[in-house]
Every structure is written in C-alpha cells, then in structure tokens.
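Late entry, written up from scratch paper. The run itself happened at the end of the previous shift, but nothing got recorded in the book at the time, so transcribing now.
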Amino acid sequence: MSAYPLTALAGTTDPTTMLRRFLGLDAVVTAGNGLAYAVASGPLGRLLGVDAGLLLGLGVGLVLYGAGVGFLATRTSPPGRAVQAVVEVNAVWAGLSVVAVFVWLSPSTAGAVWIPLQAAVVAGFAALQYAALRAGR
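Output as recorded:
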C-alpha cells in the first residue's frame, strides 16, 4: 500500500495519528459488532444460521477486545508490540472466520455472506494498521 492512499484514507500524513485513527475505527466497529452479537444473539443466530450461544460468547469477547483496541487508540504513541498483536489477532480472526464457514459452521445464506464479509473488514483493519505501523518506523 503506497503512502498516498494511506494518508488520504486517514486524513493525515502523521503515521502515529494514522495508526490511532485506524485503531479507533477498528475499536468502534469491533465493539459495535460484539454488542450486536451479545444483545441479539438469538435473532442474529437464527438469521446467520449460527448457534446463539456461540454468538453470545463471541459478542462478549469482541466487546472486550474492542475496548482494548480502543484503549490503544487513546495512547499518544501506541506501543508497537501491542499494535503488532492487534494486527496479528485481526489477521487470525479473518482467516479463522473464512475457515469456519467451510469447516465448522453450517451457516444460512445470510451467514455465508456475512461471515466472509466481516472477515474482509477485519483483514482490512489489519492491513491498514500494519501499514501505519510500518510508516511510523
């Protein structure tokens, strides 16, 4: 990813501000998604063809993870190792989400669309965060 599209997307040329913005956006989307999974696990489970208990557990985990990522986003200079861990967790989540569709789950049509779509969003966050982290080094 070249620097210009990255700075245009972040609205800044400062790598630390870029990183904090990408972490913040990730935190909001992740915690929001987790909250929806936790609060509406039954209806969403039926819509996606995924066990409601699994969605509830994932939802709680995502809210906590989103809060942690949000905390990193509030740091003046987020620690590189912690950001690298976020990048790696996001990449693993994205990969396992796709594997889950084919190996572990039997989702509905909506689930078969939603799960890879959310995996692509999470992979996008990982790529943006990684690029911003590298730009700051």
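Residues 109 and 125 are 25 Å apart (CA to CA).
(Scratch paper discarded after transcription.)
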